[in-house]
């Protein structure tokens, strides 16, 4: 018997080597090949595309199609999806069901897009496809014969692309629902969730990452950051001078007043603050980021500070969010012993006492 496996090769079998095969167990239950054939035929399936390891089943199913008088569908057998170590993808390599990926925060359209690209392409450099795009462009003859490696990092990146392509209102609602479901936010008409989503979206690839992104923004790990090796250049660049000026600006109400005007207010204030200290660029913004957010890295400072200020007055965030108010941040800031910190961060060469001659 010869079958044409669409767009790949003709596959032939000598039926004498097959012999009789079971289609029903002794207890009256039909076996897999019989069930699949009847199921596909009654649903009028026209194309059957599956892994190459099912090729032996195709022969048996083709014989059942013929025996029952059903129209024969077109069959195509594609290479297996492989794990990074080039072995067959299995449970030991991670999540194995679409339900698990959904719980992890993956979007259906991103999963379809990524799976379509495992061994297929449209002949261009494009990797982003909507489902409508795939319906229009997919052809079986562009499927590769070699196995494709499942790359979880690439899948996550792909999900981020689809996440950020969602209409703005839908994206904001998705983030807000996530934050409310996990208890980080509560009902509020303040617009806090909208501003948070707009600020954080570019750094989020999975909906479930929105929780960590927001709680990280609202936290204030100042002491841990100041004592880190990465912060040494910032600390040693006379950060105490910036801290002193910042505390004065907060105590006078100047900084708070600027933040009530949002990003624009921050931009105006920081420009004047930099001039007063004769600092600009990295020499100004790095110490400000550390002193105000407690971190060395994060989203754009104007948006971050406007959101932190809003979190303190809008009533949208819950204790579960790890939020540290501006008042509390400045209380912590005032308690820092800059002289001791500078000594702790001196390099061995700087702190070494010259040997007596």
From TrEMBL:
SUPFAM superfamilies: An anticodon-binding domain of class I aminoacyl-tRNA synthetases, Nucleotidylyl transferase
A Pfam family reported for this protein in Swiss-Prot or TrEMBL: Anticodon_2
Family matches, as InterPro entries: aa-tRNA-synth_I_cd-bd (IPR045462), aa-tRNA-synth_I_codon-bd_sub2 (IPR020751), aa_tRNA-synth_I_cd-bd_sf (IPR008925), Glu/Gln-tRNA-synth_Ib_cat-dom (IPR020058), Glu_tRNA_lig_a-bdl (IPR020061), GluQ/Sye (IPR049940), Rossmann-like_a/b/a_fold (IPR014729)
One Gene Ontology MF term: aminoacyl-tRNA ligase activity
BP GO annotations: translation
PANTHER family referenced in this protein's UniProt entry, alphabetically: GLUTAMATE--TRNA LIGASE, GLUTAMATE--TRNA LIGASE, MITOCHONDRIAL-RELATED
Family statement drawn from the similarity comment of this UniProt entry: Belongs to the class-I aminoacyl-tRNA synthetase family. Glutamate--tRNA ligase type 1 subfamily.
UniProt name for this protein: Glutamyl-tRNA synthetase
UniProt organism field: Urochloa decumbens
């Amino acid at each position: 018997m010869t079958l044409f496996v669409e767009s790949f090769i003709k596959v032939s079998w000598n039926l004498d080597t097959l012999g009789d095969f079971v289609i029903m167990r002794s207890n009256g239950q039909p076996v897999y090949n019989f069930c699949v054939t009847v199921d596909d035929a009654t649903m009028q399936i026209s194309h059957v595309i599956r892994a190459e390891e099912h090729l032996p089943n195709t022969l048996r199913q083709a014989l059942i199609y013929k025996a029952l008088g059903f129209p024969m569908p077109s069959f195509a057998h594609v290479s297996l999806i492989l794990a990074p170590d080039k072995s067959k993808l299995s449970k030991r390599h991670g999540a194995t069901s679409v339900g698990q990926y959904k719980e992890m925060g993956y979007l259906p359209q991103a999963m379809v897009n990524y799976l379509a690209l495992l061994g297929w392409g449209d002949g261009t450099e494009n990797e982003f496809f909507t489902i409508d795009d795939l319906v229009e462009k997919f052809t079986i003859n562009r499927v590769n014969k070699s196995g494709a490696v499942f790359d979880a990092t690439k899948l996550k990146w792909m999900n981020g692309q689809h996440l950020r392509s969602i209409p703005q209102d839908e994206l904001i609602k998705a983030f807000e629902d996530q934050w409310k479901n996990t208890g980080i936010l509560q009902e509020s008409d303040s617009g806090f969730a909208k501003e948070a989503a707009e600020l954080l979206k570019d750094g989020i690839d999975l909906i479930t990452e929105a929780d960590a992104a927001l709680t990280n923004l609202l936290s204030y790990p100042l002491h841990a950051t100041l004592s880190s090796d990465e912060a040494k250049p910032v600390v040693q660049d006379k950060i105490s001078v910036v801290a002193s000026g910042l505390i004065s600006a907060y105590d006078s109400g100047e900084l708070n007043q600027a933040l009530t005007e949002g990003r624009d207010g921050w931009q105006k204030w920081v420009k004047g603050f930099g001039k007063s200290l004769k600092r600009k660029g990295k020499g100004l913004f790095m110490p400000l980021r550390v002193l105000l957010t407690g971190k060395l890295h994060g989203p754009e400072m104007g948006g971050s500070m406007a959101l932190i200020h809003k979190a303190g007055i809008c009533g949208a965030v819950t204790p579960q969010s790890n939020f540290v108010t501006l008042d509390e941040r400045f209380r912590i800031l005032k308690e820092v012993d800059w002289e001791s910190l500078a000594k702790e961060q001196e390099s061995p060469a700087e702190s070494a006492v010259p040997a007596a001659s």
